[in-house]
């Protein structure tokens, strides 16, 4: 009992310590290598304000709003499906340029959503007031992202927030709503579209400077996201870091919004079942592991059989995710299944050890050590009940022993007989025979049972 409690404590501490970080790593690798989502919709486009764009202006931040006004008008003239601007207009700049941008957005040439934020996003009251008052006719969508508190990786799709009974959707959800798509209001996993080489799918990204002279076909009927793509600004690690490294796996916020918008437009989802699924998996495969561990097997076969149980769990989960997008929990159930199998295997080992000791005690007086070892190594050779088997029997007898024994004193007869039987039984044991019985001076033995002996005839003749 004490050993079981210590073992259970060890498993619990192991789960608490490594389940989440290792689970995140496994999930990231699966999301970027075998997910079924490698075909994003072709109607999502990013217009990036990059270094080449900023070099045109005397200051870097905030982005020149006269240029943004011209950019919105240029893109709007191409009749896009919707425009989303992943920039916070939370403070004034040059009044005439602010007015130009507000005029371009009120009303906008296409359904337009501006990035929004709350005080919980570290904005002051003055910033919030300016943000609400700027271009009030445009829609609003929260630009926040769901960063994992453990490592900062953006794994979740931010749905939005509710405050005072009012729901404000995320930027991607607000843009999807312009197409009549209702995004769920609960947290979901992000769908990151991938290439066959496990790198991020390159959603079309056009530099803002090039967009000013781009043909209208680049934007017609498409969902346009305008945001920054700068080396040190608004970049976030994604699951692609696990396979591609930090440089390639860190994406601009506007590109992450584009992936989130694409998943809403296409209806793709990554489904992670709750704790009940993890418990069900643990019970199912734990029971299978316990059954395998309890069975009598050879020393080589049992570890392989036990290893096959978590291997089956992983193979099933990988196939399911690669075909359906259902991401089963793996790390916790794997630890529990393995722990249960090891725990049961220990008791099975103790049972088998006791069984071996019993067999040795039972047969060592009648069977050669080699045969005993064979039986102990494969107890399955022993079966209760009858069995048809080929045997080779040997009978020995002393000719005329009855007459001789009648003429001998009893004590002398016993000494002679014991000496003879000792000498006679030795060859039986040496050649691997089983001594069936000793009747007077006769010794009866056989080969081929209880352990199989393919060369039983040769052994009998050699005796």
Give a topology summary.
Elements: H1 2-33, E1 44-49, H2 51-54, H3 65-77, E2 82-85, H4 95-105, E3 112-116, H5 125-133, E4 139-142, E5 146-147, E6 154-157, E7 160-163, E8 166-169, H6 171-177, E9 188-189, E10 205-207, H7 208-211, E11 223-228, E12 235-237, H8 241-249, E13 250-252, H9 253-266, H10 275-294, H11 301-324, H12 331-363, H13 369-377, E14 392-396, H14 401-406, H15 410-430, E15 434-439, E16 442-447, H16 456-462
Helix pairs in contact: 1-12, 3-4, 6-9, 10-11, 10-12, 11-12, 12-13
Written description of the protein model:
A six-stranded parallel β-sheet has the order 4-3-2-11-1-10, sandwiched between helices. It is α/β, with parallel strands linked by helices and 463 residues long. The chain is rod-shaped, with a radius of gyration of 40 Å. It is 48% helix and 14% strand. It has 16 helices and 16 strands. The mean pLDDT is 87.
Tally of contiguous helical segments: 16
Strand content: 5-15%
Number of strands: 16
Profile the largest sheet. Answer: 6 strands, parallel
Which segments are poorly predicted (pLDDT under 50) over 5 or more consecutive residues? Answer: none
Query: Which strand order do you get reading across the main beta sheet?
Result: 4-3-2-11-1-10
What gross morphology would you assign? rod-shaped
Structural class by SSE content: alpha/beta
Mean pLDDT: 87
Helical percentage = 40-55%
Q: Mind telling me the C-alpha Rg?
A: 40 Å
Termini separation comes to 52 Å
């Amino acid at each position: 009992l004490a050993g079981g409690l210590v073992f259970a404590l060890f498993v619990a501490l192991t789960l608490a310590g490594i389940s989440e970080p290792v689970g995140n790593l496994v999930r990231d690798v699966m999301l970027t290598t075998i997910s079924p989502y490698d075909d994003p919709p072709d109607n999502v486009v990013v217009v990036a304000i990059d270094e080449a764009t900023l070099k045109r202006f005397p200051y870097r931040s905030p982005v020149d709003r006269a240029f943004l006004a011209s950019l919105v008008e240029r893109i709007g003239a191409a009749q896009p499906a919707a425009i989303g601007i992943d920039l916070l207009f939370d403070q004034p700049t040059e009044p005439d340029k602010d007015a130009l941008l507000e005029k371009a957005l009120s009303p906008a040439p296409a359904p337009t959503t501006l990035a929004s934020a709350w005080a919980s996003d570290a904005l002051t009251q003055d910033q919030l007031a300016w943000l609400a008052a700027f271009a009030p006719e445009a829609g609003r969508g929260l630009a926040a992202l769901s960063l994992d508190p453990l490592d900062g990786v953006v794994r979740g799709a931010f749905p939005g927030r509710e405050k005072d009974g009012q729901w404000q959707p995320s930027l991607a959800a607000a843009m999807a709503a312009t197409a009549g798509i209702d995004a769920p209001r609960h947290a979901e996993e992000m769908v990151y579209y991938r290439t066959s080489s496990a790198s991020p799918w390159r959603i079309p990204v056009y530099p803002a400077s090039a967009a000013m002279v781009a043909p209208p076909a680049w934007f017609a009927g498409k969902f346009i996201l305008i945001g920054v793509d700068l080396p040190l600004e608004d970049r976030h690690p994604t699951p692609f870091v696990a396979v591609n490294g930090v440089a390639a796996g860190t994406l601009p916020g506007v590109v992450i919004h584009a992936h989130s918008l694409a998943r809403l437009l296409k209806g793709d989802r990554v489904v992670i079942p709750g704790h009940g699924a993890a418990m069900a998996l643990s019970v199912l495969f734990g029971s299978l592991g316990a059954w395998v561990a309890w069975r009598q097997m050879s020393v080589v076969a049992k570890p392989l059989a036990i290893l096959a149980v978590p291997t089956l769990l992983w193979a099933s989960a990988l196939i399911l995710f690669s075909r359906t997008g259902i991401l089963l929990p793996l790390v916790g159930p794997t630890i529990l299944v393995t722990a249960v199998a090891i725990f049961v295997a220990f008791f099975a080992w103790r049972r088998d050890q006791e069984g071996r000791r019993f067999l040795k005690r039972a047969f060592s007086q009648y069977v050669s050590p080699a045969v005993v070892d064979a039986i102990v190594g494969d107890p399955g050779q022993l079966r209760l009940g009858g069995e048809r088997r080929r045997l080779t029997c040997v009978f020995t007898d002393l000719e005329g022993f009855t007459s001789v024994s009648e003429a001998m004193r009893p004590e002398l007869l016993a000494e002679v007989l014991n000496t003879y039987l000792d000498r006679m039984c030795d060859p039986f044991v040496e050649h691997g025979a089983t001594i069936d019985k000793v009747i007077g001076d006769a010794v009866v033995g056989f080969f081929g049972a209880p352990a199989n002996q393919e060369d039983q005839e040769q052994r009998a003749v050699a005796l």
